[in-house]
Each structure stands twice: as structure tokens, then as C-alpha cells.
Amino acid sequence: MNVDSNSYTFGFATIMVVIVAALLSYAAIGLKPYQDTNIELEKQQNILSSVGINVERELAEEAYSKYIKEELVLNYKGEEVDGIAFEIDLNKELKKDQFNQLLPLFTSNINGEKQYIIPLRGKGLWGPIWGFIALEEDLNTVYGAVFDHKAETPGLGAEINQSFFQEPFIGKAIFEGDNLTSISVVKGGAPDGDNHAVDGISGGTITSDGVTDMLLERLNMYLPYISKVKTEIEKEKLMADIDSVITLNDPLIQKKYE
Known about the structure:
Layout: H1 6-49, H2 60-67, E1 68-74, H3 90-93, E2 103-110, E3 113-123, E4 128-135, E5 142-149, H4 163-166, E6 175-176, E7 179-180, E8 184-186, E9 197-199, H5 205-256
Parallel strand pairs: 8-9
Antiparallel strand pairs: 1-2, 2-3, 3-4, 4-5, 6-7
Helix pairs in contact: 1-2
């Protein structure tokens, strides 16, 4: 065999390419279960972070089971439908018509109080941005929020995943009366006392606008469900008030007919 011939060189190169490709494919298949597990644990961490529970990745599954009480799938009418909320890929859902999208929703219980956790996904300057916003039981007040990105500019738009940007969302309101206002990320700083705005990131205007648009678009999708639950809460409160009045007046009613 002439090892200096072109045919030998091409043959050897072809064999090596096939061997390397086979090894890489085998490694990818072998590592995929570990990669999928890491993705799931990171998602659990992010959901927990939105309600102020920060844990290491190896503890995420245990904490998730402890604090997350419900996983719901909704349609555009706010009705519960079949599906597994945790497995819904928002990237795929956002490519659908809004009437066909599946909307995942999570609820948690922290210190005896209920929170509603809404997944988010939108567009930044260089790629997708995403996160979770948690609402208190009134479905108006923000309990917490977390954001992340794929390729925003370091030191600028990439700062949406930092606590100094996320913490100001806590305590803000997404409604003004019965109107959904969402929360705006304001270039140059939110006006003092504005309960529907937070400071934007200096030099990260497009990413900040992306967060604003993402919040409004996603919250609007959940509006039918939010409105329905808020109505149910108001009815329950009214009935409780009526029962309380009846209980208080019961001795007076009995005395009147004695």
C-alpha cells in the first residue's frame, strides 16, 4: 500500500471523520439525559427564585416539591385544559396563533400565602429573553420576578438577570383599578411613586423595552384567567362578610322573637 498516494490520504481522512463523528454522536446521546436533568433543575430554580426561594441546583427538586403546589395549563379563555405545565415550551407556543397557545401557570405557598407564577418569554436586542413573574394572592401585587437572556450585551442588557434590576419589581401592581397596566421599564428612571414602573438599564434600552413588551404581552394572555379568579375571590369575600354579619346579628334576632 502506498501511504503517500492521494487515495490513501483521502481514505484515511474519511475513516477518521466517520470514527470521530460516531464518537461525538455516542457522547451526545450518552450525555443528553444529564443535560435534560440540568435544564429541568435550572427551570425549577428559576421558578423558585421568583418567590424568593433560592437554592443550589442539587436541592432544587426537593424545594420545588415543597413550595410549588399546583401546575396548571390554561387556554386563551383562561380555562384549565389537559397538559403538563412544566413541559410546555414557550418558544414553540409563541409561534402559534394566540388562540391556540397553551399557557402554563404555577402556584406556590410561602408562609401560608398563595402566589401565582407566570412564565415569560420575549425578545431582547440580540436574542430571546425570558423569566417568571409571581403575583400575590390578589393577582395584582408583584411578589417577585426573575429574568434571564441568551445573548444580551454584557454590562448593559445582560443586567436583567441581576438582583438590582429584579428586586424593584417587588410590590409593584399590574392593575390600575380594573385596567391591566402591566409594569414598564422606563429609560432614565421611573417617576417617583409610580407603582407600575421600574428603572431601566442604562445603555440597555432595547432590552429594557423587550422586558416591558414581554410582560404586557404575557400578562394580557393570562387576563381572562386572572379576571375570573379575582371575581371568585371577591364573591368569596362578600359571602364571608355576609356570614359575619349574620353571625353578629344572630343573638339580636333570637332576642327579638323571645
